[in-house]
Specification:
Layout lengths: L6 E4 L4 H12 L5 E3 L2 H6 L7 E4 L2 E4 H11 L1
Parallel strand pairs: 1-2
Antiparallel strand pairs: 1-3, 3-4
Helix pairs in contact: 1-3
Amino acid sequence: MSVLDHIILYGNGCPKCKVLEQKLKQANIKYSEVSDIDAMISKGFISMPVLEINGKIFKYSDAIKEINERM
């Protein structure tokens, strides 16, 4: 991932959220975190975690693949 990537992790602290957060940290990827349920609902998210990279949405398994490919 480039330094210019805008990455947001939407999560609620669930086990999958923690795994995704750990993967981001292991890959030394900087990100911001949103845990506001209303903000997630307004984006149409019904399950967590969700990773947003430059406006593109990745559900959990796709987010893991994306991080692994960019490591």
